[in-house]
Here is the input.
Amino acid sequence: MIEVEVVFALPDKATVLSVELPKGSTAEEAVLKSGIVDKCPEIDMKNLTLGIWNRTCKLDTELKAGDRVEIYRPLIADPKEARRKRAEKAKEEGRANKITGAKVKSDDPRVC
Here is the structure.
């Protein structure tokens, strides 16, 4: 038998449960056996994204003793799209060169 932790975090709280499983158990089995889905109804078992110690993994990844299985929430914004919008805003505000995107140098000696 091995012991692992199953974790699900929201912005204001985290749920951490320990579960004992037979050797050869998978990350998905740990989530199901832990009962965390009953305690956290926000978890969508149909679109489950898991990780072990901050590295994403497949549902059928075999666990080792001491692993921490993390249940990830879906992203609310596409990181590439958010970065593109920030860059466009900087160009519009004059904080970035409109052609190269590089920071605009200031004549003010207090600004680097």
Notes: The longest helix spans residues 79-92. The two ends are 58 Å apart (CA to CA). The mean pLDDT is 85. DSSP finds three helices and five strands in the chain.
